[in-house]
Amino acid sequence: MVANIVVVFGIPGVGKTTVLSETVETAPKEGLKVQVVNFGDKMLEVALEEKLIEGGEKARDQIRRIPLETQRRIQRISGEKIAKIAEESEGTVIVDTHVLIQTPFGYLTGLPVWVAEALKPNILAIIEAKIEEITSRRAKDLTRERDLDEEEKIKEHQKMNRWGAVCVATLTGATVAIIENSEKKVGEASKTLIKLIKSH
Ligand code: AMP
Ligand code: MG
Fold first, then answer.
1. What pTM, to 2 d.p., does this model score?
2. For the chain, which domains are there?
């Protein structure tokens, strides 16, 4: 029993979590068994266990500021935990994560070779959205300590993600799909993702 792994990327504020909630809700109606595992949740669990960060509502936004070597170490542990979940599951495990994390040390790859090889994803899906939607979503989300980047930075990050995804595809043989999301079309983005999962 090993689940099909689909890794979903998307810069903060793109609406990734919303698309994935919709996907979990509609997948059973399409005869699909789908489970979402959030990589950030695993990182948070480990970081809190090891007292690397303070708890609290915005704790997950402290993770990318932890010293780099430690981030890499807990990233590896989190990847292994998720690989184990997938090994013990059937159907599809969607991993909600980031291909490149903006850290004070530069962009950190979300799937270095050891994580990519542990997860063995079949599909890499990048969720993208219009810059205006991303900025307004980041500004509205008071539960998070989002980086309020200027437009150029967001554009760069979104562009870099495509390159990053291709690098992960090179390591894993996975396919790369780009899914456009907009506030009004979350349903469509989710349908596209489901279609993609069904095609495999
Ligand atoms: P999220 O809620 O998806 O924004 O994730 C919260 C935080 O978890 C991110 O800001 C990153 O610091 C961390 N994180 C998520 N996925 C990864 C990954 N694959 N590698 C390293 N850190 C990650
Ligand atoms: Mg999210």
1. 0.96
2. 4-39+72-199 (3.40.50.300)
